[in-house]
């Protein structure tokens, strides 16, 4: 192989690798929105819905009770204390309810966190809708700041009858420094 052929071959390989790198970046960038749509459609991974309070119609089904349990965790070495004010509550499907969580930055530095919700069982995820939630946006905390954070939710009246307990869990992640 002469020098001109080797140069063309190297150039071809370099262009293919650059194209592959670009394609991998594009796929990785598109993966999160694709995953969110997939989870919303299928109800996998316990993704919950979001509704506006004005969109809620009808009244609570007083003939039926569902227990909602609240579970919290903090991911990794994020210096945050995060607990629900109550660990469970009994609700009627169709009614609007509020639960609160308390988070406290345990460090001497400002931090920003993001809570990610999950609902179990998966069959209940599409029937658990939030009208207001601290998980909708990043939460900045000053050093040693403590904050009460509410979530307002409704369990859809169409929740399958065999589901008597729903677990709403949040994992708080360190979302980086402020600014």
How many E-type strands? Answer: 10
Instruction: Give the SSE order as H and E letters.
Output: HEEEEEEHEEEE
Number of helices: 2
Whole-angstrom Rg: 23 Å
Major sheet: order of its strands? Answer: 1-7-9-5-3
Question: Could you describe the largest sheet, including whether it forms a barrel?
Answer: 5 strands, mixed
**Termini gap:** 55 Å
Overall helicity: 10-25%
Write up what this structure looks like:
The protein has 179 residues and is α+β, with helices and mostly antiparallel strands. It contains two helices and ten strands, in the order αββββββαββββ. It has a five-stranded mixed β-sheet with strand order 1-7-9-5-3, with no helix packed on it. It has a five-stranded mixed β-sheet with strand order 4-2-10-6-8. It is elongated. It starts with a helix and ends in a 5-residue tail after the last strand. The model has no long low-confidence stretch (mean pLDDT 84).
Layout of secondary structure:
Layout: H1 3-42, E1 49-50, E2 66-74, E3 80-84, E4 88-91, E5 96-105, E6 111-120, H2 122-125, E7 128-133, E8 139-141, E9 146-155, E10 165-174
Provide a quick synopsis of the model:
The protein has 179 residues and is of the alpha+beta class. It has 2 helices and 10 strands; from the N terminus they run αββββββαββββ. It is elongated.
Structure characteristics:
single chain; 179 residues; alpha+beta; five-stranded mixed sheet; 2 helices; 10 strands; 25% helix
